[in-house]
């Protein structure tokens, strides 16, 4: 249940890194630093269309053709961004992030040390940290992928009575191909979500969630009469 091939069926949609089918999905994150350090040494290549002069670049980076970057975006390298992407106003991409082709980062969202397969999208005002998003995965507005425990100890994944230490105190979410996190969801550190699974809005999840599931908290809505009040 932790193997990369379970979550990611399109290794050709992952730039710079070789997907190891029998390796753990979270091991992809361990490949990011050496891959970017080797590929981007001394490079500041930007073939994107800048919609504003107010775009901030730091460190080494590569940004592909057809990508559009709007105002107040900050890119802190080393960062790789593919072709035909869209970075909306106020987005921040932090070091050691790999973004495939056709991805989008929404208004005010922050992506930190993560890998986005081609076609993955992050909506507005979200935080994606130390995470892997599969092909065409979706992160809704206001989503938080919590990436560190309160006690700052290494993260251990638990499934079917087994424990899988990942050997790091940082790990956000592993989100499989075409999986979706609805608006204002929170994933606890180290959460693994299978492909085609939908986590409905305002749901908090942890641990392993298998493929092709709908996950939500039962909710009830109360409607009562209320007097008409005009407020100044």
Work out the number of β strands.
28
- Count of discrete structural domains: 1
Q: Give the CATH superfamily.
A: Hexapeptide repeat proteins
Indicate the radius of gyration in whole angstroms.
19 Å
**Global shape:** globular
Biggest pleated-sheet summary: 9 strands, parallel
Secondary structure blueprint with pairings:
Blueprint: H1 4-7, H2 27-39, E1 44-46, E2 49-50, E3 56-58, E4 61-63, E5 68-69, E6 74-76, E7 79-81, E8 86-87, E9 92-93, E10 97-99, E11 104-105, E12 110-112, E13 115-116, E14 121-122, E15 127-129, E16 132-133, E17 138-139, E18 144-145, E19 156-159, E20 162-165, E21 173-175, E22 180-181, E23 186-187, E24 191-193, E25 198-199, E26 204-205, E27 208-209, E28 214-215
Parallel strand pairs: 1-4, 2-5, 3-6, 4-7, 5-8, 6-9, 7-10, 8-11, 9-12, 10-13, 11-14, 12-15, 13-16, 14-17, 16-21, 17-22, 18-23, 21-24, 22-25, 23-26, 24-27, 25-28
Antiparallel strand pairs: 19-20
């Amino acid at each position: 249940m932790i193997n990369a091939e379970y979550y990611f069926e399109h290794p050709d949609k992952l730039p710079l890194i070789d997907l190891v089918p029998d390796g753990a999905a979270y091991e992809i994150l361990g490949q990011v630093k050496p891959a970017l350090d080797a590929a981007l040494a001394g490079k500041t290549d930007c073939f994107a269309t800048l919609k504003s002069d107010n775009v901030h670049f730091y460190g080494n980076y590569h940004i592909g053709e057809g990508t559009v970057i709007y105002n107040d975006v900050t890119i802190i390298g080393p960062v790789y961004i593919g072709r035909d992407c869209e970075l909306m106003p106020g987005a921040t991409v932090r070091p050691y992030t790999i973004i495939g082709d056709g991805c989008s980062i929404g208004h005010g969202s922050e992506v930190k040390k993560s890998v986005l397969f081609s076609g993955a999208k992050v909506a507005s005002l979200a935080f994606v940290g130390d995470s892997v998003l599969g092909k065409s995965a979706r992160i809704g507005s206001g989503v938080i992928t919590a990436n560190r425990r309160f006690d700052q100890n290494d993260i251990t994944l638990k499934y079917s009575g087994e424990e899988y230490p990942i050997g790091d105190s940082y790990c956000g979410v592993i989100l499989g191909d075409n999986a979706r996190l609805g608006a204002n969801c929170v994933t606890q550190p180290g959460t693994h979500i299978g492909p085609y699974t939908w986590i409905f809005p305002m749901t908090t999840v942890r641990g392993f969630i298998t493929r092709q599931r709908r996950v939500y908290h039962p909710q009830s809505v109360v409607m009562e009469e209320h007097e008409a009040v005009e407020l100044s």
